[in-house]
Amino acid sequence: MHGSPLAPDLFAHQPPPRADGRLPITITHLEMVRADWTERGRAPDVAVQIEHVVAPTAAFYRELYDRVGRPWLWYERRLLSDTALQMLLDQPDHELHVARHDGDLVGYFELGGDELVFFGLTLPYIGRRIGPWLLDRAIERIFARGVTRIDLNTNTLDHPKALDTYRKAGFRPVRSESKELRDPRVLWPEVYRWPPK
C-alpha cells in the first residue's frame, strides 16, 4: 500500500496492470567518475542518521526492501530464497547503509563492487530534499571504497524525478534497454495494490 497523499502524482507514470501479467519497462544504465560529481544536497531540515549495517540478516533486509521499494514495484529480491539473499548480503564487497530520523526509516542505499545497487526513500520523506543529500552520502561512501567509476541503473517505474536527480549529481546515461517483467501487481495483488492508495 502506498499510503501517501502524493500518490496520484507520484505514480501516474506507472501503467496499469495488463491481463497478460507483463510489465514493459525501459532501464537506463548510468555511470559517473569522481571529476563529474556535483554535490547538490543541502543538509535536510530534520536530523538524519546514517548507519552502516555491517551484518544484515535476510529478514532485516526484506523489510527495508519492501518499505522503500514496494511503491516503485521493486520485486526481484523477493524472488530469492532466504539462503540466496543471505549469500548476497554476506558478499565481502556488499554494504548496506540505513538512514533514520528519530528511529523512523527514512531510506537506504546499498553498494556492491563499483555499483550503487539500490537507493531510495520511504514515502513520508520524499519531497523534503533528503534524496539529493542522501545520494551525496552514497556517492561519497562508494568513492571512499577506492572505485574510479560508479555504475547504477534506474527504470521507468521509479520516482519520476529519479533519472534527473542522478544526472544532476553527475551521472551520465551510457545505454538503455527495454524489457518486459512479470508484473508484481499480478503476481502478488494483495501486496502490490492497484491503483495506488
Provide a compact summary of the structure.
It contains 6 helices and 7 strands. With 197 residues, the chain is of the alpha+beta class.
- Give the second-level CATH assignment, the architecture: 3-Layer(aba) Sandwich
H and E string: HEEHHEEEHEHEH
Q: Which homologous superfamily in CATH is the superfamily? A: Gcn5-related N-acetyltransferase (GNAT)
Structural class: alpha+beta
Instruction: Report the helical percentage.
Output: 25-40%
Total count of helical runs of at least 4 residues: 6
Distance between the termini: 6 Å
Radius of gyration using CA atoms only: 16 Å
CATH topology: Aminopeptidase
Query: So what's the CATH class?
Result: Alpha Beta
**Which whole number gives the mean pLDDT?**
93
For the record, the count of structural domains works out to 1
- Quick one: how many beta strands? 7
| Broad shape | globular
Structure description:
The chain has 197 residues and is an alpha+beta fold. The protein has a single domain, classed as Aminopeptidase (3-Layer(aba) Sandwich), CATH 3.40.630.30. 26% of the residues lie in helices and 30% in strands. The protein has helices at 7-10, 58-69, 82-89, 130-144, 162-169, 184-187, and strands spanning 22-33, 49-53, 94-101, 104-112, 115-121, 149-155, 172-182. The chain is globular.
